[in-house]
Description:
Layout: H1 2-12, E1 19-26, E2 29-36, H2 43-46, H3 70-80, E3 83-90, E4 94-102
Helix pairs in contact: 1-3
Amino acid sequence: xxxxxxxxxxxxxxxxxxxxxxxxxxxxxxxxxxxxxxxxxxxxxxxxxxxxxxxxxxxxxxxxxxxxxxxxxxxxxxxxxxxxxxxxxxxxxxxxxxxxxxxxxxxxx
Length: 109
């Protein structure tokens, strides 16, 4: 899951661009955050990014590796672990993906 999010951030960033991975505790659980300073996404793209085979418009500068399954698979893995994925993005500025895991969940079931 993390590899897919990190790889997507790398693909969206300029060559040798910075991708930041951090994890922190919140009041109700834990959050993993992946941030890049890449091409970003419009709001309508954020809603589609976890659709299988969806890829950002190649004309916007994204490296064209892959077939559009990484984000869909990562989202399913996060959901299987009761994670909530939140995406914030600004075109031409970058994207932040946060995966939040609630402390209240019983992961033994």
